[in-house]
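Methods: example folding runs. The two proteins below were folded one after another, and each record is reproduced exactly as written to the output file, sequence line first and structure-token line second.
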Amino acid sequence: MSILSSNLIRWHKKSGRKDLPWQIDTNPYKVWISEVMLQQTQVQTVIPYFLKFMSKFPNIDSLANSNENEVLSYWSGLGYYSRGRNLFKAAKIIQKEFSSTMPSCLEELESLPGIGKSTAGAIRSLGFKLKAPILDGNAKRVLVRYFKIEDPIDLNKTSIELWKIAENNLPNKECDIYTQAIMDVGSLICKRRNPNCPECPLKRKCLANKENIQNTLPNKSPKKAKPIKKLYWLILQNKNGELLLENRKSKGVWKGLWTFIGFEESNSRLRYQEKLPKDYKILEEGIKTQHVFTHYKLDIDTISIELNKDFQNLDNNKAWFNSDELTGIGLPAPVSKFLERIK
């Protein structure tokens, strides 16, 4: 066992997290759901979503026997909605090909939608207590600083080097404790900014700490400015307080979710608006908001209208929803935030 792994295991037994919801009466299914939710999302944000999701989908069969709309309704607000869609797809595959039992083989896990190498390693290690490396963001940061890896972390050669280091430092026993420990140290101590080095179990051997360069690592390649895309929402409300939404059946980050009627050009929105019954009332206009995705920023311009007459000229992907019905469908975060504002 390496000094790195022995120090992490010793620290975790004394100070590591042991009472997170997915750690209580844990099993491979719980680990899978939590690990997918924790991709790109903080622990405290995930906890209420995890509890709500598990109450509805406590096992693989309950998830596989559901439908994508229902699954996405329990994912609303978490973002990166392909994660929710992939959970549903993978559950169907596990039900059919693995008799509703999570596989423990890394290759079989990685063959499932939404499960990459690190997530597969976490499921095998934390869920089955079997030896497997992980390399999530927290683990990367710990290893980069400990071994003073100064090449940009987003380079392929750096990734290859880190995977070798992760594999070489795996203990032969208590691998689940080691895996949780390196995650916890990265999350709680070896933070992205202002790491708490005096409390770190690895401080004596950490090369970055010795040279006092921990705040400069990891390095990344220079960032390019994110492009900006435009979206023009038309928010229609009838006299009963129902809202008209459209389902994003086409490909994209909001595929399968319900959103306000959206247009890529303001003229397109205007043409649609001209088809409405003429005695409508504009409630708000010129309301602007921005939503940031991984690869671009979305500028949203909004017009909110109350209709005085029924509007039935609906495409197949549009429907009216009252406030109670809105809680049972998948909504992107910007839509949910806007609905909170107009309640």
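Second run, written to the same file directly after the first:
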Amino acid sequence: MRRVKLPLGTVVLDPTGPALTEDDRRRLLHPAAGGVILFAHNFESPEQLLALTEEIAGLRDPELPICVDHEGGRVQRFALGFTAIPPMRRLGVLWDRDRESARRAARAVGTVISAELGAHGVDFSFTPVLDLDYGASAVIGHRAFHYDPNAVGALAAQLIEGLAGGGMAAVGKHFPGHGFASADSHVAVPTDPRPAKDIFKKDLVPYRVAIQAGLAAVMPAHVIFPQADAEPAGYSKYWLQDVLRGQLGFNGLIFSDDLSMEGASTAGGVAERAQAALAAGCDQVLLCQKPKEQELLLESLAGIAVSFPERIEKMKRRGGRDFRKSVAYREALASLQEVP
């Protein structure tokens, strides 16, 4: 099949299964499509995954970036043939015992993720989680490195460098922080009642460190911080433009979190949600596991051009060789054995 020359659009969506259907191809060839996110329902084996990513890469020029939530712990979509990545909390436990070992393990996590995903045609993972563990959010829980923002920043920076060594960009989430809000944004609209100064003092610390370490993209939280703005962070010009772009100096890509989540429902239907996210400052929007709604969203955004296509290009994996054959990968696997 000959690749269609088509600029990248604003919508990131998932195929319906482990192989592309004609409907999947039609959606991915829509002018508003700009990326592909994969889930467990898209995975059967390493061989099948590679065939799927190769077919996706062959659809368009430029190629659609392919991504996945592959953090470790309970958020790791691919299992068979992939190293089991520990939940990031375990790196925090190691930090409290031996900071140098924890830094080495965090870097190893990034190295292993980039090597194994990259070898199967995946461009990047939505990692690291930069939320602080306040003990309040069950949906974050063990996904967070630590409650100490300095520990989170230090470990995230190492993970980012590990990813970069394997040619992979990093995505920090969930800006400015989902760790204090107890409600799960998948099924509710969480609020965080703290004064903005508390969030600046604690939750933004890891972002400052991660941006300095080369963070390429950020995903905001579907959380309302009423002391700062009435809108959820993902719909908030204050958080995305004034704080993230302005005060933190971030110039990379901003993804919305999944617009099918209940936390995104404050803006209306999927088209209104996407418009609100883009107007606030998101570059691309995600809509997952809702093929009929994806079609509506694609049509609603058919005439919307991506403002900064170079931000998307920077998310694509660099380096053609199989990084699993490197000494760095073998050493990273050994370092993961140090994680308690």
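Comment on the second run: The chain has a mean pLDDT of 96.
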